[in-house]
Amino acid sequence: MPKIHIVTDSTADLKDDIISKYNLHVVPLTIQIEGKTYLDRVDLEPESFLQLMEKSPELPKSSQPAPGVFKNLYDKLGGNGDKIISIHMTGGMSGTVESARTAAELSDSDVTVIDSRYITHALGFQVIEAAEMAMEGKSVEEITARIEKIRQHTKLYVVVDTLDNLVKGGRIGKGRAMVGSFLKIKPIASLDDGEYTPVAKARSHKQAVQYLMHDIKEKTAGKTVKGIGIAHAGGQAMAEPLRQQLLEAGYSNIKYDFTTPVISTHTGVGAVGFMYYTD
């Protein structure tokens, strides 16, 4: 019976022990900063990147893996008839999933490419469950159906501590940024179905945490919370109180880590991503 391999990219914020446990294949994106190019999480770790970004006069740039990188991996994994499910960050923020689709068309291997419509641990939710099902001998059809269900029952919020990177990246006007900075506003946005949508404004880290705690309690009432993730770009001042309140409220299975440099480039230093999914 053919084996099913699970491929993803470095924006899934997966730790080495998880990658090893599930035999995952992680294709890194690249980061260009101050004239140098780095492979995300391979030769540039999140904490050291934040230091580089704070000193850099220009906004770093990220690039998706070339189709050839995916094709080589697909050819290697599927050369003996094994199947591949390749799950990637939202196509709304990167061309990574399109690069994977191009490679799948060029490869002779049996590859199913999926746009997770999410980033960081919310992408990881799909990847890990897919890997667990593959290890149990489930079919590609069963796994893709489960991934779709996870996607439909996932919520992801991003709280930005500074508007600088959003301005530099052309995602918000300078006038609005000046007003936001003056008022010390912390914009809260959701990432649902791949779309970045502002949903609220907080005037402090405490207010942002209160909003997120109210949201998870309200939206998961009567449901089983399957997983929670907190990813931050040096935003421990907001992320740590959020984690403590979640633990005190009885939530468990909380993934907590620095986010990838690719995401930090978009959000800026101090940002926090909060995500969860239910059954």
What does this structure look like?
The protein is of the alpha/beta class and 279 residues long. The chain contains eleven helices and 13 strands. It has helices at residues 16-21, 46-55, 67-78, 96-106, 120-135, 140-152, 164-168, 174-183, 205-219, 236-248, 261-267, and strands at residues 4-9, 25-27, 30-33, 36-39, 61-63, 83-88, 110-115, 154-159, 186-192, 195-202, 225-232, 254-258, 272-278. It has a six-stranded mixed β-sheet with strand order 10-9-8-13-11-12, with helices on both faces. A four-stranded parallel β-sheet has the order 2-1-6-7, sandwiched between helices. The radius of gyration is 19 Å and the shape is globular. 46% of the residues are buried.
SSE blueprint and pairings:
Elements (H helix, E strand, L loop, with lengths): L3 E6 L6 H6 L3 E3 L2 E4 L2 E4 L6 H10 L5 E3 L3 H12 L4 E6 L7 H11 L3 E6 L4 H16 L4 H13 L1 E6 L4 H5 L5 H10 L2 E7 L2 E8 L2 H15 L5 E8 L3 H13 L5 E5 L2 H7 L4 E7 L1
Parallel strand pairs: 1-2, 1-6, 6-7, 11-12
Antiparallel strand pairs: 3-4, 3-5, 8-9, 8-13, 9-10, 11-13
Helix pairs in contact: 3-4, 5-6, 9-10
